[in-house]
């Protein structure tokens, strides 16, 4: 799921930068970025947390998180580490959802990635 979230972050950032088209065969139509309204959040105070657009940070964070989850499942990393990282990611997701609400932007792909983050943490807890 973390890799899927990273792929959606890549898509969002690629469309934002103009590197890829909005319509992609691997993106379900429901999640396609149909207007610049969704992309407009990048230019707000909620659009960057670590000095980079959130979608770009998300690519690296979710890729790293996927690697950590794999290492945890193989026993190389203790489960508490991946749990703390997952909690940190969900806290960031909550902040970004609050930003979407305050900006009155419904970004389906953003909400999907935040849902995936929360789902991963929930699976870890269970």
From TrEMBL:
Gene3D superfamilies: VKOR domain. Signal peptide: none annotated. It is a multi-pass membrane protein. One of its GO terms (cellular component) is membrane. Residues 2-124 form the Vitamin K epoxide reductase domain. Pfam families: VKOR. Keywords: Disulfide bond, Membrane, Oxidoreductase, Quinone, Redox-active center, Transmembrane, Transmembrane helix. One of its GO terms (molecular function) is quinone binding. It is found in: Membrane. The chain crosses the membrane at residues 49-70, 76-98. Belongs to the VKOR family. This is Vitamin K epoxide reductase domain-containing protein.
């Amino acid at each position: 799921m973390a890799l899927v979230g990273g792929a959606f972050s890549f898509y969002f950032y690629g469309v934002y930068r103009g590197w890829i088209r909005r319509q992609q065969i691997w993106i379900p139509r429901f999640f396609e970025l149909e207007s610049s309204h969704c992309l407009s959040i990048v230019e707000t105070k909620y659009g960057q947390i670590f000095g980079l657009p959130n979608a770009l940070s998300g690519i690296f964070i979710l890729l790293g998180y996927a690697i950590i989850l794999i290492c945890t499942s193989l026993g190389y990393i203790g489960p508490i580490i991946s749990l703390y990282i997952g909690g940190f990611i969900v806290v960031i997701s909550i902040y970004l959802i609050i930003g979407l609400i305050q900006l009155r932007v419904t970004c389906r792909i953003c909400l999907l990635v935040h849902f995936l983050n929360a789902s991963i943490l929930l699976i870890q807890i269970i």
